[in-house]
Write a structure and sequence with these properties.
The complex is a heterodimer of chains A (65) and B (184).
Chain A: E1 2-6, H1 16-20, E2 25-27, E3 33-35, E4 39-40, H2 44-51, E5 57-62
Chain B: H1 6-34, H2 43-70, H3 78-82, H4 91-112, H5 114-117, H6 119-126, H7 128-143, H8 150-172, E1 182-183
Helix pairs in contact in B: 1-2, 1-7, 1-8, 2-4, 4-7, 7-8
Classes of the chains: A alpha+beta (65), B mainly alpha (184).
């Protein structure tokens, strides 16, 4: 599982994350990235991490309990 | 009567400066995507530099246009700044510059219009930057009165070479995978 966090002070609302991993990220009414869920097994979040032009997304991989 | 060369000098200097700034902006934009410096350069910093250089470059373009209208060495009307082929001086070469500037302004404005046109279209429009660079280079070489100087040739060749190399790097590099931290 991947635990995901967005640094709201960095996010500028490019929206790449919402395009790459729409199950995890969405753009809120201010046009900034918001999490639809805090954890996911979908490796697409790693693409979102590397695509983010602001480096605002961090992911921690957790072993399944 | 000799005319005041101030605006003519300003027009040439601002045109060349705009070209340098916008080329650096393209390179910074490519750094954001391909990360040739790994973790040594923060993505957010590269993005900020990219946007700042683009903003400065567009400001310098505005100065370039204003100086050309005020200058009397070449006759460029206010209308000719915006309408391609309306200039009496080297119409095709100036048209390339007009088209490049308008396209560059559109690409820059599209960032603020993302919410209306969608992020995907905004990113697609960014590809037009390559056309801006091509038109801008042709414009500089063909319309610039300094283009035959060795330093100007070196500048245009260096800029084209740098953008081509950075683009090749971008095309060949794999997206960087984040370092995964493990926690129990």
């Amino acid at each position: 599982m991947f635990r995901i966090a967005i640094d709201g002070s960095l996010c500028s609302g490019f929206g790449d994350c919402a395009d790459l991993a729409p199950d995890v990220f969405e753009l809120d009414s201010h046009g900034k990235a918001a999490l639809r869920r805090g954890e996911t097994a979908d490796p697409a979040v790693l693409d979102a991490v590397s695509a983010c032009p602001m480096g605002a997304i961090s992911v921690v991989e957790e072993d399944a309990a | 009567m000799t005319h005041d060369p101030t605006f003519w000098l300003l027009a040439r200097a601002s045109g060349l400066t705009a070209y340098v700034l916008l080329t650096l902006s393209v390179l910074a934009g490519l750094v954001v995507k391909s990360r040739p410096f790994g973790r040594a350069v923060k993505t957010a910093s590269a993005t900020d530099v990219h946007r700042y250089l683009a903003f400065l470059g567009l400001g310098m373009l505005a100065l370039h246009g204003a100086a050309l209208v005020l200058d009397r060495t070449v006759r460029i009307s206010l209308a000719a700044l915006f309408v391609p082929f309306a200039a009496g001086y080297r119409p095709a070469a100036v048209a390339a510059g007009v088209a490049a500037a308008e396209l560059a302004a559109l690409v820059a404005a599209s960032f603020s219009l993302r919410r209306f046109i969608g992020n995907r279209n905004w990113r697609r429009l960014h590809w037009a930057t390559y056309l801006v660079f091509l038109l801008g280079t042709v414009h500089g070489l063909a319309a610039g009165t300094d283009s035959s100087r060795p330093w100007a040739v070196a500048l245009y060749l260096g800029a084209a070479g740098a953008v081509a190399s950075a683009t090749a790097w971008r095309a060949l590099s794999r997206p960087v995978r984040p370092t995964r931290q493990r926690s129990a």
